[in-house]
Write a structure and sequence with these properties.
heterodimer, A: mainly alpha, two-stranded antiparallel sheet, 13 helices, B: mainly alpha, Four Helix Bundle (Hemerythrin (Met), subunit A), 7 helices, 0% strand
Chain lengths: 340, 171
């Protein structure tokens, strides 16, 4: 009873809440880091050094007027933010934050579930998230959101191909689709996959930037050309859902990159016995630190790089990343077969 | 018992959404109901303990193919008045005939399977020597069903080349 219902439910509640808190504080982190990059202070008014800013933002978004445009498709307009938020959250079901730990005399695994098709589950759920963006643009019945949503969905579909191909080469290395199994494979192989699959790692990261609509690939939100992007007509909490979904997706990409390429919860250099003293840091802490590094790079890239032009974006995706990913996959396959 | 209840609930949702797909006036709504329909079909696969097939169902159909449907529907303005739908070339008799043929086929399958109880023992005997749903699907695809698999991939390749030629007339 406790093992089948209470603990999984508790885990779901904890993971969802932790994610939402992390997402709100990601917004603050982004504002702070970009402010520092531009020699500003960032939010300073609400709480010491502005640490209560996300709470103030949330209150503001909740009490704002919720407008539905008159000519909008009401049902789809309401459903679109939900459709983008839900896939971003249910992906966390298969992300392993740590191995099994002994908690109050009970073996508890630090992940909600470990399905045999974990990675495939993540990819398929993420592919459903595209609907939120397309439908938001369509239902607003307004030209800028429609243009932005066409851009966003074309971009997502293009980069999904490259990212999925890199995932296949990781699956070849690990021999399993289970997220826990992939971390275990890196443990038994004594090496992080980032070192044996550097090309896949870089393509995954670039594709991750594009799939989360982040700079330098944030064309769907290019304010100079499109006023605000696919969520121009949204206000209040519905806008907040799109905003939160974008940041939740950033955390998903960071967690998946950590799991696939940086050894998940493993400490650095798991094969070097001289570094065994690092084990005093709990495993889930390593996972959080590695994911945080990715999130920081996301913000850093945004503060540094200018935006791509649309044709450049498509050229990079189709003519460079996808062929490179296919070549990487073929080489991985050949090496794997020859070494067996 | 629980499995049977889950099956009937999911089946009811699948049929309900399928009816909505063909009966809704707005084409975009109809495509959205198709997505929901595919998601419930994936749930049916999970119930049949085929998680690999469920994930592929969502990835390929709900996440891939229907997105393209949605693109086409959004780009082609289908908000014509109802009288514009009176198609003089409509072949009502042919449609009815085809529908009757499919219905007959379904009835034949139903009768066939109810007179012959499922050969469950034979199915388990032919299981591949690997564990895990994904591994078993892969094993069967590359052993028993190798030729159909290769033919399907050839077909897809031909379709892809055809699409490129159609889209890019001067190569």
């Amino acid at each position: 009873m406790i093992d089948t219902f209470v603990i999984p439910l508790l885990k779901i509640v904890i993971v969802l809440n932790a994610t939402l808190v992390a997402v709100t504080y990601m917004v603050l982190l982004e504002r702070k880091v970009i402010a520092w990059a531009q020699s500003r202070l960032g939010p300073m008014r609400v709480g010491p050094y502005g640490v209560l800013q996300p709470i103030a933002d949330a209150v503001k978004l909740m009490i704002k007027e919720d407008i539905t445009p008159v000519r909008a498709d009401k049902w789809v307009f309401t459903a679109a933010p939900i459709i983008s938020m839900v896939p971003a959250l249910i992906v966390y079901a298969v992300i392993p934050f740590g191995p099994e730990v002994n908690l109050f005399g009970r073996q508890v695994s630090l992940y909600v579930t470990d399905v045999n098709v974990g990675l495939l589950y993540i990819v398929s759920v993420a592919s459903v998230g595209v609907y939120g963006i397309i439908l938001a643009g369509y239902a607003s019945n307004s030209k800028y959101p429609l243009l932005a949503s066409l851009r966003a969905s074309a971009q997502l579909i293009s980069y999904e191909v490259a990212v999925t191909l890199t995932l296949v080469s990781v699956i070849l290395m690990a021999g399993t689709l289970s997220m826990v199994g992939i971390v275990r494979a890196q443990e038994s192989g004594h090496v992080w996959f980032a070192f044996v699959q550097p090309v896949a790692f870089v393509i995954f990261f670039i594709g991750g930037l594009a799939e989360t609509n982040r700079a330098p690939f944030d064309l769907p939100e290019a304010e100079q050309e499109l006023t605000g992007g696919f969520h121009t007509e949204y206000s209040g909490m519905r806008f907040a859902l799109f905003f939160l979904a974008e940041y939740a997706n950033m955390i998903v990409v960071s967690s998946v990159a950590t799991t696939l390429f940086l050894g998940g919860w493993l400490r650095p250099f798991p094969n070097v016995a001289a570094l065994a003293f690092l084990d005093f840091v709990p495993a889930w802490m390593w996972f959080l630190v590695k994911s945080f590094v990715f999130l920081y790079i996301f913000i850093w890239v945004r503060a540094t790089l200018p935006r791509y032009r649309y044709d450049q974006l498509m050229r990079l995706g189709w003519k460079f990343l996808i062929p490179l990913a296919i070549a990487n996959l073929v080489v991985t396959g050949i090496v794997k077969v020859l070494l067996l | 018992m629980g499995e049977a209840i889950a099956f009937y609930v999911i089946a009811a949702f699948i049929l309900g959404f399928a009816v909505l797909v063909v009966s809704t006036k707005d084409t975009v709504h109809s495509v959205l109901f198709l997505v929901l329909d595919f998601l419930f079909v994936a749930a049916l696969y999970v119930l049949l303990q085929a998680p690999f097939l469920a994930a592929i169902q969502i990835l390929v159909y709900a996440g891939g193919i229907v997105v393209l449907y949605l693109f086409v529907v959004m780009l082609v303005n289908l908000k014509r008045p109802p009288e514009a739908h009176q198609d003089p070339h409509r072949r009502t008799k042919l449609g009815l005939g085809l529908a009757a043929a499919v219905l007959l086929e379904l009835g034949a399958i139903l009768v066939y399977t109810s007179t012959r109880p499922a050969t469950a023992a034979a199915a388990t005997a032919a299981l591949p020597p690997v564990t895990g749903n994904t591994e078993q699907v892969g094993w069967l695809l590359y052993t028993n069903y190798l030729i159909p698999f290769e033919i399907a991939s050839m077909l897809l390749l031909v379709a892809m080349i055809g699409a490129i030629i159609l889209a890019k007339r001067e190569l």
